[in-house]
Amino acid sequence: MKRLQHTHPIALLIALLLAWSNSAAARVLRVEVLNRTALDATASSPAYEKIAAIVYFAVRPTDAHNRGIVDLDKAPRNPQGEVEFSADLFLLRPLDKDKSNGSLLLEIPNRGGKGILSLVDGGKPDPATPGDLGDAWLLRQGFTFASLGWQWDVVETPGALRLYAPVAVEFARAPAAPPRRRRGAQPPKEPAAATGHITGLLRDDFTPFEPAKDEPLGHITGAWLGGTEYPVANPSDTRNTLTVRDSPHGPRHTIPAAQWRFAHQVNGVLAPSDRFVHLDQGFEPGRIYELIYVVRDPVVAGLGFAAVRDFASWLKHAPDAIAPVHQVYAAGISQCGRFLRDFLYQGFNADEKDQIALDGVLAHVGGAGRGSFNVRFAQPSRDGQPMSSIDYPTDIFPFTDTPERDPLSPKAPAEGLLDSATAHRVVPKIFLSHTSYEYWGRAASLIHTTADGLADSPQNPSLRIYFYSGLQHYSVPFPPQPTTGGAAAQQLPSPLPIRWFWRAMIANMDSWVRSGTAPPPSRYPHIDDGTLVPIEKLAFPAIPGLFPPASANKGWRLDFGPEWRKGELTQQPPIAGAPFPVRVPQVDSDGNDRGGIALPEIAVPLATYTGWNFRAPSIGAPSERPAFLGSFVPLHATAAEATSAHDPRPAVLARYKDYADYRERFSQALDSLIKDHYILEEDREQLIDRSQQEWNWIVKPAARENK
Prior knowledge:
This protein is an alpha+beta fold.
C-alpha cells in the first residue's frame, strides 16, 4: 500500500485504466474459490496448489465476436446489457511462480469428467495428496493445469464440471437482470418481460444391450448416462413419436402411441415421468429406438465456446488472473476433440479484442466430427456411434482444415475449419490425432482427403495430423479383459497405450509455440501411396473367425430444416442425403494398419490390432460394430499351433528366436520413434518393460491366467 501512496496519480490512473481495459476484453467478472488444497513438494514433483472454483463471465450480445452464439439475443441481460453465466473450474498451479514454464494445459472435460491429468501422469484425476500425482511428469515440466466446465447437460455427479448458462425466452422488451447463478442452481426463471416459452422438437435415440421397459431421456454411452436431456414439455402432444429399426439407416417402424408413455417404474409402480420413456412390451437388445418429442426453454449452450475463449484470454492478459500464463494449449479427447474443431470452425479463437485465445490445440480422437454444441436445444453429449446418436449434427461438412467444396453442391462456396481463424489471424498450432478406431467409427479419413474421397487434401502449415495405428478410441490396461455390459464384444479390446504419445505431443506443442521448434511431421495413410483405400479393397488376411466389417461410419449430408444452418433444427429426424465416401488404412500381411505412427507392438508384432470389433451376441446385433473398441488377436506361439488353427500369420517363435531377439528388435523400433520425437527418451524404459510383459502373456500359456 505504501507504494501506491507514493505513485503519481496520473500514472496510477493510466495503469488502472489499462488493467481495466485488458480484463474487460476477457469478460471474466470474478472467480469464487470454493476450496484450496496444498500439494507439497516431493522428490519427484514441485509444490502445487489445487483450487476448485466457479468462474463468472459476461458477454455482450451486440459484439460481433458473440453474435454466432445461438439464442444469445434471447437471454436475460444485466443492467449493462450483458449476458452473465458461469462455469466450474479445477486448477493446479505452481506455488512457486519461478517454477512455472508459463504454459497452461487447459483440459476440455469430457461430459464433466477430468481425465487428461490421470492419463498423462498416471495418477488420480483429482489428486488430494502428492502421492495421487503419479509420476507428476506434467507438473515437473512446470505446466499450470486447468479443467473448465463448458457443457450444460452434464449429469449431476460429485466433482463434475459443468456450464451454468441462462435459458432463452421470447421478449417483448429489454429484460430485467437475472440473479447470479450458483453451483447446482436451477436455470433462472424468465423475467416479467418474457412473452412466452420457446418450444421445439428434440430427438433421442438408443440401442439397449439388455431387455428393459424403461429408458432415460438422454445420451447413453455404453451402460451409463453421458448427458441429461430436456424434459418432455407436453406428454400428450401428437408430435411425440417413438420408432424402432434394425440398422442405422434401415426403415423406421412407428410404435403405436397406446403402447408407450413417458413414465418410469419405481418400486414396481409405474409413475408418470418427464425424464423416462416406458414401452409396455419392453425394449429389445440390439434394436435402434428413436424418440421425437416436444421440449421448451432452450439453454444458450454456445456460451461454452465463450467460456473457453474468455478464460484463456483472461489468464494471459488480465492482471488479476488466478493463474497468469503466457500461452494456453487446449486439450480435448473424443467429444472434446470435436468441441475444439467446432470452436475453431465457428470463429471463437479471437477474443473480443481480436487477440488469439488458444495458442495450441490438441484434439484427440475427434475424427471428422464437430457436434451439437451451439444450436437451439443443443445436445452436447451426443456423438456418433455405430448403433446410436445417428444422424446428429456431428460428422458434417466441412471436414478439412483448408477450404474444400462439396462435389454435390458445386455452386456453394468452399469451406474449411480454419477459415475464420485465418481471416482474423488467430490460427493456433494444431495437432489432430486419432487411432485406428476413428477410421471405422468417426469418418477420420475425411479430415485429410477431398470430399469426393478421390485424392489427398493439402494441410495448413500450422497443423499436424497424427495417426496412431492399432490403438482404439480409449486405452485399456494390459492384459486386456473381455468387455461386458453395453460394450460386450466378440474379441478382446486393443490394449495399446496412448499415454506415451500424449506426453510427447504436449512437449512438442510447448516447444512449437514457445520457441518455434517444428514438431514431427504429420503421419497418416494416403491415397496416393495406397495406404488409404476403400473398404472393398482392404487386403485383410484370412484369419479364421475374424472378418473385417462390411462398412464404416460415414459423414452424411443432413437436412434439419430451412433454418438449421442458423442453429434451429426443425426437421426431426433429419433428411439424410448421400454420404461422403470414407476410406480406411490398408493393412499388412498380419492385418495391422499401415501408414501411421507405429508403436513397436505394430512394427515387430506379437498380435493383430484392429480399429474394429463386433458386438457380442448377448447384446444383440452381432453383425454390427460396438462403439470405441478395436480388437486384439494374439499370434500363435509356435508354428505347429498356427498350422493347426489354419492361421496364415507366422507364429511368434517363427519370427523371433527368443525374447532377447524380440527385445532387440522392439528397442530398435522404439528408438526410431524417439529419434523422430513421437516418444520421449525419458519414457523408453517403461515401454521396454512392457515388452517383457506382453511377450510372457502371449508366448507362455501360463501367463494367460488373467484372460
